[in-house]
Each structure stands twice: as C-alpha cells, then as structure tokens.
Structure prediction request, 264 residues.
Amino acid sequence: MKIITIANRKGGVCKTTLAVHLGTWIARQGRPTLLVDLDTQGSVAHFLGLEPANDLFELFQAVINFRPDRRPAIKTFLAPVLGYEDLVVVRGWDRSTILEAELRREDVAAPAAILREALSPFRQIAGICVVLDTGPYAGKVQEAALAVSDYVIVPGIPEAATEAGVLDIGRRLKEIGRKITAIVPTKFVVGAREHLQTIADWQQTLGPIVYYSPREKLVGLPRRVVWGELVRHGRPIWDVAPKDPAAREMEILVRRITYDTALE
Prediction:
C-alpha cells in the first residue's frame, strides 16, 4: 500500500481538484485506489457526483471507540464511483470538524496511529494506492495524514499568499524527518510576472520537485475556466472534456506524480 497526501493549509489552491484527478487516473490504469476526503466541505463527493456523507467521521469513531472485532465492516464506510470500478471513496463532510477535538483527547491514541488503524484493512489489497485529500487547515487530521503518507504533494498558487502554506508543510515534514515530494503550481497565469518569479524562486530553492517545465509540457494546473466548471458536472476532466488541451496537461501532471511515487 502506498499513501499519497495532497496538503496545503491554504484553501482554494486546487487540492481536491488534484486529488480527484490523481485518484481517478490511477484507478483507470487498473490499480485499486482509495480516495479519502479529510476535509469538512464534502468536495470530493461533489466532484465525483456523489452525495456528501460523514463516512470519515464514522470510520474514525469506530476506530476510537471499538475493538477491531466490534467494528462495522470496512465496506460500510466506502462509496463506489460510477465509471471507476477500481476506485472507492471515504467521504468527508460537516461532522469531520468534531474529529479535531476527538484527536486532542488525552485518552485517545496519537492521530497518526488512529489513521493508520483506519487504513489497516486496505493493506491486504495488493498494490492499492491511497490518496488523502486534506482540508485547508493545519490541524490534527492533517498532522495524521502527513505522518502516515509515503509521499506529500503540495499544490499552491504561485503568489505570496500561498508561500506560508508551502513553507508550513515543509517545516512540519522536516520535524518528522520527511520532505515534500513535489510542489504543483496551480491556477497559473501564463505571462504573469508574479507567478513566473515565484515559480523561479521555488525552483532555485527546491529544485526539480517544483512541477513546472514548459519544455516538458509540465506546467502544473493552469488557470482555466474548465477547472471551475468540473464540479458542476460532477466528473473529472477525463469524462467532461477529454479532448480539451487541459486534459492533456493534467495527464502529463499525474503521470509525473505516478512516476515520482513509483506507481509506474
């Protein structure tokens, strides 16, 4: 089992867009995939045309309050996705906010231990990939996701407002002896001086983990209306507009991620 976390404490930087496209792409390649929504907005469900539900909250409650032999079957917490037979989702929604308080209780195990236990039933599935979509806040749930992940992808708009979020993830990973796997520029405006300068600064400081290389047709997630329209359709771009140039750019991006996370 390999775990990929999409994280940034800043909101609106396309974490869910990236998580959904990565998860659906991996599943379309025939690899068992679990997409977990650790946010409170239910965005993963909306993005995939599902009804939001508190599956994540219920799963955590089962782990916290019951012995393994007393917990509901793991399939109770999973939602299939039409058109993606190798993909299942653990949906998050409003009651996920309660998890922050629950994970701070002195009588509860460490957040990372709880999340590992919640994911443990999937370890028996050969070759499974788990994609964790985190919320726009640096709480205990995100802390757990960073701790259990094998790889951490940080999407960020290449502007000053995003810098703190990127640096925060880098600092928190360093504290546990880890590094950011990749930084993905999002909502990138071609020709925007601030965006180009920020990307150049990232590349100078962080090197090739910054996913921006026009020569290789790797440009992160450009600012295009289609990204904002996808949630309305309840489908990723592979299904909404597969011939749109943005679909090809997204494919290049997820292929690079799957390569760097040893999924290809």
Q: What stands out?
A: The longest helix spans residues 160-175. The two ends are 14 Å apart (CA to CA). The CA atoms of residues 143 and 186 lie 23 Å apart. The beta strands are 2-6, 33-37, 79-81, 84-90, 129-133, 151-156, 182-188, 221-222.
